[in-house]
Write a structure and sequence with these properties.
By secondary structure, the protein is mainly beta. Helix content is 8%, strand content 22%. The protein contains three helices and nine strands; from the N terminus they run E-E-E-E-E-E-H-H-H-E-E-E. The longest helix is centred in the last third of the chain and has 6 residues.
């Protein structure tokens, strides 16, 4: 007979991997549309999430957080509001079965003069015990990119993996590689565990 009054040694358990998700919580209407697609200020941000073997990850979820075109970080409540007028700076989307994602957003402006504008990204996927954080930098302002503290701390190859490519139509493309030789550089914040 087991003694139920004894207190076993308890150890922390790891964070839960992505899922299961329930329809009432995820997704929400127009979750990947920070601005209406096709509007004058809209920019399409696309990419693919790959695993360590170079295969597309079919079940990842991405969140982006960013300032508006003027570098203003939205502070209004209601990040899930999609009314076509209010830019909240937040978007979420699930990748498709080929690991591809798409957001309709704006080109973020620099939050300070001379700073490189970027989009913050959070990745949730199977096999990840905790979410991953990275950034997508815009490719145009080479002086600001060269002076960016994060980019300056990386070698040239790693820096290139954080800078999106610009399409002829103004769109942005950014692939995310979770592991391997071309792994996307990921960030660790205070209090964020491996």
């Amino acid at each position: 007979m087991t003694d139920l009054t004894a207190t076993p040694d308890l150890t922390p358990t790891p964070g839960q991997t992505v899922g299961p998700f329930y329809g009432y919580a995820l997704p929400f209407d127009h979750d990947n549309e920070l601005v209406p697609p096709g509007s004058a200020r809209a920019v399409q941000l696309t990419g693919t999430v790959f695993d360590g073997a170079g295969e597309p990850v079919p079940d990842a979820i991405l969140e982006i957080w960013q300032p508006d075109e003027n570098g203003e970080v939205p502070r209004a409540t209601g990040s899930l509001r999609r009314n076509g007028f209010t830019f909240t700076g937040f978007g979420r989307t699930a990748v498709d079965p080929e690991g591809e994602f798409s957001f309709s957003t704006v080109n973020p402006g620099p939050t300070e003069a001379g700073k490189a504008p970027f989009i913050s990204v959070v990745i949730f996927a199977r096999g990840l015990l905790n979410r991953l954080f990275t950034r997508i930098y815009l490719p145009e302002d080479t002086a600001a990119l060269a002076a960016d503290p994060l980019l300056s701390s990386l070698d040239e190859s790693e820096r290139a993996r954080l800078i999106a490519t610009r399409g002829a139509d103004g769109s942005l493309h950014f692939d995310i590689r979770l592991q391997g030789e071309e792994e996307t550089p990921f960030l660790r914040f205070p209090g964020h565990e491996d």
